[in-house]
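Is FE2/S2 (inorganic) cluster placement plausible here? Inputs below.
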Amino acid sequence: MSGRFFGAAVTRVEDARLLTGTGHYVDDIELPGMLHAAFVRASFAHGRIRSIDKRDALAMPGVVAIYTMDDFADIAQGPMPPMAPHPLLKTPITYHPLSDTEVRHVGEAIAIVLADSRANAEDAAAAVILDVEYLPTVSDVALAHEANSPTAHSQHASNIAATMKAGFGDCARIFAKADHVLTEQFDIHRGGCHAMECRGVVANIDLLTDALTISTSSQSPYMVRRHLAAYLDRDENGIRVMTPDVGGGFGPKANVYAEEFAVALSTIKIRRPVKWIEDRQEHFVATTQQRGQIWSIDVAFDNNGRMRAIRGHCIHDNGAYAPYGLILPATAIASFPGPYALEALDLTVDVVLTNLVPTSPVRGACRPNVAFLLERLADRIARHLGMDRQDVRQRSFVKAEQMPYTTGLKARDGSPISYDSGDYTGALNLVLDKIAAKDFEARRKESKQRGKLRGLGIASCVEDTGIGPFEGASIRVTPAGKVIVATGASSQGQGHRTAFAQIAADALGVELEDVTVETADTAKFPLGISTIASRIAVTAGSSVQLAAHKVRAKAITFASHQLEVDEHDLELEGGAVRVKGIADMKIKLSEIARALAGSTGVPLPGNMEPDLAATAYFNSNALTFAYGANACEVEVDPETGDVRVVRYVVVHDCGKLINPLIVDGQIRGGVVHGIGNALFERMIYDEQGQPLTTTYGDYFLPMASEMPPIEIHHMETPSPRNPIGVKGAGEGGTIPAAACVISAVEDALGPNGPFIPVHPISPQQVVQWLKATR
Amino acid sequence: MTERSLTFTLNGQPREAKVDPRVHLGDFLRHSLGLTGTHIGCEHGVCGACTVIVDGSPVRSCLMLAVQIDDCTVETVESLGKPGDLSPLQQAFAANHGLQCGFCTPGMLMTLEAFLRTTPAPTEEDVRIAISGNICRCTGYQGIVQATLDTASTKANRT
Ligand code: FES
Ligand code: FES
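Reply from A.M.:
I modeled the complex. C-alpha cells:
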C-alpha cells in the first residue's frame, strides 16, 4: 500500500483552522435561549443525602431551575446503562445521572442548576443546602481489599466487585523446578488524563418533534446516543449526537458520563438549550482516572536469564463505580505476556471499589502497568544473575521466526490470541545501537564529573491494536467533483481528517484539498464505536480504503460504458477516469457524479446504481500487534533528588505509516505522558477520600522545560490483518515510557541502590534511596 | 452588579464595551466579544491556554479581570494570520506538527509571539523556558520548540 499521499509526511488539513482560532470546540457553541448549567457536587466521599434545600438558591439572580434526580422521574429513572456489561458483574455498578441518595465519591453530581450565565449558576450551586448522613469511607485500595474494611457502597458486604482469573500452562510444575524464583510487590499510582480541554456538553431540543441534538466533547458519541436512547426509552433516530473539535481525549472521554445524561434530561425538562462546560477543578473530581494497582508477582527463570513463568495477584482500584465495566482489569490480563515467550502464566485480579473517582482507561489503559511489571522484572532478573539487562530480554523474547505466535491467552470470544508479526530482538538491538549504549559508561563518567548520576534505561512492549468490532466510512463524490468522506470515528487531535483524506485521495486520484472528511456525527454516518485503544487507523482507515475502492470501481464501470474501453485499461488520476496512456481520453469524476445523480427520464448507463458513492465497514476480527523498544538516559542530582530525562530514543513498529509526521507526534506525546507517570503525576487523596491535588500547582504535568527531545526510528512490518497494513500508534509511546525512565533511575542509583517497583517516584524518595546506599 | 465602560484597542481596532466587573478577560473575549480563539484550560493561571498579549506582554486572561484592560492594547490569536494566509510562526507550527488537538495552541502562539519579539534569536533552552508555563498534553512540546526555532532562524536569514 503506497501512493502519492499514503506514507507521506503531509501537513495536516486540520491545522489552518486550529492555528487561527477558528476551531470550533464545545464551549464555542452559542444557541439562542441557551441556559448554563453548574452542578452541585459532593464535598464528601461517602454519605446518604437526607434532604436537599434549594429554596435560597432558586431565589438567586438569573436562576431558572434546579433539578435533582426526583425531578426527572417523569422522563426516566434508575442507574445509567453499563457501557461494557460483563458476566462477572452481576449487578452493573453505574452512576445515576444525578445521585439518587447515596453519594460515593467527592465530586459526584447531586443536583444541576440552570441559569442565564455560568457565573450565576455556580453562585446558586454553592447556595444549595444538603443534609447528609456521613458514612464510613474507604480511599486506600489495599485497605478496601481487606475483609473488615468499610464498604464504598453501603449495601455491599465487600469491596471486591469481581475477581478475574486467566492463565495458561502449568505454573505449579515450572515454579517447582525453576532454577530461580523471585517475588516482588509493585505499587502503581493513580493519575488523570488531563486533556487540555475539559469535558463539555450542549444539548438542544426541537420543540416540534422533541428530537434531541447533543454536542459533546467525547471519544464515543455513538455510545452516548445508544445509551441515552436506551435510558430515555426512545428511538436513536430522535437523538443526534456529534462531536465538535475536541481538545484531547486520552481515554476518559470515551465514557458515557452522568453529566451528559443530566444535561440531556434538563433540556427535555426545561425545553431550552443547555450548556455545561466542566471546569478544571471538576475535571479532577469527576472525570475518570487511572493506573492505581498493587501487584504481587512471582517470576520463575532459569540460570541463563530466560523468563519461564509468572504468577501474579493484583488489587485493582476501580474507584466508586464501574461505568466501563471490567475493561481495565481485562486489559491488564490481556497485556500479558508482553514480548516474552512464557511457558506458563497464572493471574488473579481483584477488582476493588473505593470511595474515589472511578477508573477507566487513560492512554494505554493497563498496558503501561503491565509493561512496567514485565520490564522491571526483566531488570530484576538481570541484577539477580549479574547479567546484562538486554540479555535477559533477548533470551526471553518471542523470536521473529516464531511469528505468528500464539501466546496461550484467549481473546474475549474464546479464540487464541496470536501476535501477527514483529521482531522484538531486532527492535531492542536497534534502540541500543541508536542510543549508543556501548559508549554509555563514558557518558556516565562525564556526568559524574558534573556531580550528576547518569543512568541508562531500557523497556520493550507489545501493544494489541485495532480492536473490533468495526468502524465504517461512506464516500461520496459530489457533482462538483469534491470527495466527501464521512465516518463514525471521532477525533481528538489525531489528525484523522488528514490521514483519511490521504487514503481516499490516493484511491480516487484526487488532490488532498478535494477531500473533506466529516467525523463523528450520527446524522452523517449511522454507526461508530469509539476512538480508543489505538484502533482507528486500523478500523476506520481500512474502511475508508474499502469504500474508496468501491467508489473507484463504480467510476471505472461508468467510464468503461461511456468510453467503450475495457475496465482494465482505465485508471483514476487528476480527478478523472482516463484511458491508460491516452491522457485526453477521460471523463471527470464530477461528470460521472452528475450523471449518476440522475436527470428526469434519462436511464443510467448499464442500469448502474445511482450516486457515485459507497459505504464500507472494516470488521477487525483479529488484533494486530504493534511493538517497540525504548531507551533513555537520566541524570539524577544527588543533592536534590531531581531526575532529568536527558535523552530518549524510541524504536517503534506500527506497520505501514499513513503519515509519519502524525505517527511521530502520537509517539512523542505518548512518551511525554509516560514520563509524567514516572516522575510527576500523582493524584493524592487523604483517608477521607478528599483529593489534595486539584490544580496544576499541586498535580504536576510534564512541561517543555523538563522534557527531552525524543528521537524516533520506525521499523515497518506491514500488518497482514487489514487491507492497509497498519497497526495502531496512539499509545505505543506511553506504554513502555514509565518503565524505561524508572529503569534508568535505578541504573543511575547504582548497584547498591534499591529495586524500584513504584511510580511516580519523588525527589524525596530518590534522596532517601541514595542515603541508604551510603 | 453595575457594569463598567471600557475603551481599549483589540487586534488593532479601537473598541468600547461594557462589562460586569467580575468577568475575567478570557470570558470577556470569548463570550462577550465572540473571540473564541482564546481557550480556557484551567482558570487557575497554570496551563497558559488562555494567554493573550496585553500592552506587549503575554498575560493569562483567566487571571486578569476584563476591567483591567481599560486603555490597554490587547492582541489575541485572531490577530495573527488567517487560514490561507498564516503567519510565519503559524506556518512553522503546521510544518513541525506543533499542534494536535489545537486546544493549547492559541496560548502557545501568543506566548511565543511575545517571546520572539523580545528574543529574536533564542536557543532551544530559551524556547523551552519561554513555554514552561504552557501545558500541552498532546505534542510532547518538541514540534512547538522546533517551530519557534525555525521561525526565528528564517527571520534572521531574511533580515
Ligand atoms: S486558563 Fe488561564 S492559565 Fe489556564
Ligand atoms: S495540542 Fe492538544 S494540548 Fe497541545
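Short version: Chain A touches chain B through 56 residues (CB under 8 Å).
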